[in-house]
Amino acid sequence: MMRYTVFLFLPLLMVFSGCEKDDICSDTTSTTPRLVIEFYDVTNLTQTKNVSNLVLKTNGVSETILFNAVSKIYVPFDTTTDTVQFQLIQNGGDTDTTNDNIDNITMNYTRTTQYVSRACGYKLNFVLNPTNGFSFSDATPNDGLWIQTMGISETTITNENEVHVKLYY
Fold first, then answer.
1. Which ranges of the chain would DSSP assign to H, the alpha helix?
2. Which of these, 11, 22, 75, 121, is most buried using a 10 Å CB contact count?
3. Partner residues linked to 70 by β-bridges
4. 51: three-class secondary structure by DSSP
């Protein structure tokens, strides 16, 4: 009887010894970061300022993102090129299109690949060009820029835990 028990458990032992731990990418694992932009008061350069009815429209993407009463936004990078172009539309979230003020922003960067793990694969990190990292212009010159100035506060973008660009209005 003992011999038959060994023959029964031997195949089971072989089956379970071939199992390996599931390799699942955790939600907390750092992935390709977005650009973190924080808004500041142009009259008090250290004071953050909330924006309301702000619409983000990225070139080449039909969907827009609405932000309301926030001082910080997250903008996805284009992972296939070294430039992202987007529009920030002040008052774009309300129904009155006559008060929309559209500013165009272009960010220039280089991409670097970083291995995360077997389950998560690779992620892209970005380095903003220190001499020509950004430009901004008015989409409709007769209404004037609503963004007065902007600056890069962190050129290396590996996570979303810090502010990369500051916009003053």
1. 2-17
2. 75
3. 51
4. strand
Q: Which residues of 42-75 are buried (b: 16+ CB within 10 A; e: fewer)?
A: eeeeeeeeebebbbbbbeeeeeebebeeebebeb
Q: Amino acid identity of 125?
A: N
Residue 95: closest CA among 70, 66, 73: 66
- Output the six-digit token pair for 147: 């963004």
Q: Which residues, at least 6 apart from 159, have a Cβ–Cβ distance to it below 8 Å?
A: 30, 33
Q: Could you tell me the two tokens for 14?
A: 């072989």
Whole-model pTM: value is: 0.83
Which of helix, strand or coil describes residue 15? helix
Residue keyed to tokens 């390799």: 23
129: tokens are 């060009």
Angstrom distance (rounded) from CA 92 to CA 86 = 14
Residues in the chain: 169
Give 97-126 pLDDT, tens digit per residue: 899 999 999 999 999 999 999 989 999 999
Strand partners, 103: 88, 138
Structure tokens at 166: 């500051």
CA distance 139 to 85: 12
